[in-house]
Amino acid sequence: MKRNIFKLLFILLTLSLFSVSCSMKDLTGSDEGIEKEYRGNRYAGNLSDGSKAEIYINSDGSFDLNWNGQVKVEAKNIISLGNGKYSASQGTSGFELQFESTSLGLIIVYYDNGKQLLGTLTKQ
Asked: pTM for this one?
Protein backbone atom coordinates (compact mmCIF):
# COMPACT_ATOMS: atom_id res chain seq x y z
CA MET A 1 0.00 0.00 0.00
CA LYS A 2 2.76 2.41 0.99
CA ARG A 3 4.67 1.55 -2.16
CA ASN A 4 1.64 2.29 -4.36
CA ILE A 5 1.21 5.70 -2.75
CA PHE A 6 4.86 6.57 -3.47
CA LYS A 7 4.47 5.43 -7.10
CA LEU A 8 1.35 7.55 -7.47
CA LEU A 9 3.07 10.59 -5.93
CA PHE A 10 6.08 10.13 -8.19
CA ILE A 11 3.87 9.90 -11.28
CA LEU A 12 1.89 13.00 -10.27
CA LEU A 13 5.08 14.95 -9.57
CA THR A 14 6.56 13.96 -12.93
CA LEU A 15 3.37 14.91 -14.77
CA SER A 16 3.14 18.27 -13.02
CA LEU A 17 6.77 19.13 -13.85
CA PHE A 18 6.24 18.12 -17.45
CA SER A 19 3.07 20.19 -17.65
CA VAL A 20 4.77 23.30 -16.23
CA SER A 21 7.77 22.99 -18.54
CA CYS A 22 5.55 22.63 -21.61
CA SER A 23 3.41 25.63 -20.75
CA MET A 24 6.28 28.04 -20.07
CA LYS A 25 6.96 30.61 -22.76
CA ASP A 26 10.39 30.66 -24.38
CA LEU A 27 12.28 33.37 -22.55
CA THR A 28 15.65 32.83 -24.21
CA GLY A 29 15.39 35.79 -26.58
CA SER A 30 15.04 33.68 -29.70
CA ASP A 31 12.22 35.92 -30.94
CA GLU A 32 13.79 39.35 -30.46
CA GLY A 33 12.71 42.70 -31.77
CA ILE A 34 9.36 43.91 -32.94
CA GLU A 35 6.46 41.45 -32.79
CA LYS A 36 5.44 39.51 -35.89
CA GLU A 37 2.12 41.32 -36.28
CA TYR A 38 3.97 44.55 -37.22
CA ARG A 39 6.64 43.01 -39.45
CA GLY A 40 6.56 43.82 -43.15
CA ASN A 41 4.82 47.16 -42.59
CA ARG A 42 6.07 50.53 -43.80
CA TYR A 43 5.27 53.84 -42.11
CA ALA A 44 5.97 57.36 -43.42
CA GLY A 45 5.37 60.92 -42.29
CA ASN A 46 6.90 64.13 -40.96
CA LEU A 47 8.83 64.75 -37.78
CA SER A 48 8.56 67.81 -35.54
CA ASP A 49 11.44 69.56 -37.35
CA GLY A 50 9.58 69.25 -40.69
CA SER A 51 11.80 66.48 -42.07
CA LYS A 52 10.33 63.36 -43.66
CA ALA A 53 10.91 59.95 -42.14
CA GLU A 54 10.09 56.41 -43.21
CA ILE A 55 10.34 53.21 -41.17
CA TYR A 56 10.20 49.68 -42.53
CA ILE A 57 9.75 46.81 -40.04
CA ASN A 58 11.90 43.90 -41.24
CA SER A 59 10.93 40.22 -41.08
CA ASP A 60 13.56 39.55 -38.37
CA GLY A 61 12.08 42.14 -35.97
CA SER A 62 14.62 44.88 -36.76
CA PHE A 63 13.69 48.15 -38.44
CA ASP A 64 15.17 50.50 -41.02
CA LEU A 65 14.74 54.23 -40.50
CA ASN A 66 15.15 56.38 -43.61
CA TRP A 67 15.72 59.89 -42.35
CA ASN A 68 18.83 61.91 -43.19
CA GLY A 69 20.31 58.65 -44.45
CA GLN A 70 19.43 55.12 -43.46
CA VAL A 71 19.78 53.64 -39.99
CA LYS A 72 19.22 49.94 -39.31
CA VAL A 73 18.28 49.11 -35.73
CA GLU A 74 18.96 45.46 -35.03
CA ALA A 75 16.38 43.30 -33.27
CA LYS A 76 18.74 42.64 -30.35
CA ASN A 77 18.70 46.41 -29.60
CA ILE A 78 14.88 46.59 -29.39
CA ILE A 79 12.98 46.05 -26.14
CA SER A 80 9.24 45.42 -26.01
CA LEU A 81 7.52 47.48 -23.32
CA GLY A 82 4.14 45.85 -24.00
CA ASN A 83 0.96 46.98 -25.77
CA GLY A 84 2.74 47.80 -29.04
CA LYS A 85 5.35 50.04 -27.42
CA TYR A 86 9.08 49.55 -28.01
CA SER A 87 12.32 51.17 -26.95
CA ALA A 88 15.47 50.87 -29.04
CA SER A 89 18.97 52.28 -29.30
CA GLN A 90 21.54 52.45 -32.05
CA GLY A 91 24.77 54.40 -31.80
CA THR A 92 24.18 57.82 -30.20
CA SER A 93 20.39 57.77 -30.66
CA GLY A 94 17.44 56.25 -28.87
CA PHE A 95 14.04 55.48 -30.34
CA GLU A 96 10.60 55.00 -28.88
CA LEU A 97 7.93 53.45 -31.08
CA GLN A 98 4.21 53.15 -30.31
CA PHE A 99 2.21 51.11 -32.81
CA GLU A 100 -1.46 51.91 -33.39
CA SER A 101 -3.81 50.30 -35.93
CA THR A 102 -2.94 52.69 -38.81
CA SER A 103 0.00 54.70 -37.48
CA LEU A 104 3.27 54.66 -35.59
CA GLY A 105 4.25 57.21 -32.96
CA LEU A 106 7.99 57.87 -33.09
CA ILE A 107 10.35 59.70 -30.74
CA ILE A 108 14.03 60.04 -31.63
CA VAL A 109 16.36 61.09 -28.79
CA TYR A 110 19.96 62.19 -29.30
CA TYR A 111 21.98 60.96 -26.34
CA ASP A 112 24.77 63.52 -26.77
CA ASN A 113 22.60 66.68 -26.53
CA GLY A 114 19.17 65.44 -25.35
CA LYS A 115 17.38 66.81 -28.42
CA GLN A 116 14.12 65.04 -29.28
CA LEU A 117 12.19 64.74 -32.52
CA LEU A 118 8.58 63.56 -32.50
CA GLY A 119 6.29 62.35 -35.23
CA THR A 120 3.32 60.25 -36.17
CA LEU A 121 3.98 58.10 -39.21
CA THR A 122 1.11 56.70 -41.24
CA LYS A 123 0.97 53.05 -42.31
CA GLN A 124 1.58 52.82 -46.06
From this structure: 0.73
